[in-house]
Write a structure and sequence with these properties.
By secondary structure, this protein is mainly alpha-helical. The protein is built from 2 helices and no strands.
Length: about 80
């Protein structure tokens, strides 16, 4: 009886794992649809809220866009 329960739990766990790995999104979370995700070797997205997966949901100021465009540079943009 205990062996059957263990086998059933193992089968259920394996099926859950396969479901999870099959439905896992391979794209990077920061990239919007149409942006190069896993094929982008440097993993740098285009600037602006349109290139972000969730960026269009928020209102960006001029300073926000200038800061995003300057990333990953060490100097801040001149619009501060």
């Amino acid at each position: 009886m205990g062996l059957l329960k263990m086998a059933a739990l193992g089968t259920l766990g394996y099926a859950g794992y396969k479901y999870y790995t099959k439905n896992k999104n391979p794209d990077n979370a920061a990239f919007a649809a149409g942006q190069p995700g896993n094929t982008n070797v440097s993993q740098v997205r285009d600037a602006g809220p349109g290139a972000m997966r969730d960026g269009a949901a928020t209102n960006w100021t001029r300073t926000d866009e200038a800061s995003d465009e300057s990333f990953p540079a060490s100097d801040p943009p001149a619009t501060y």
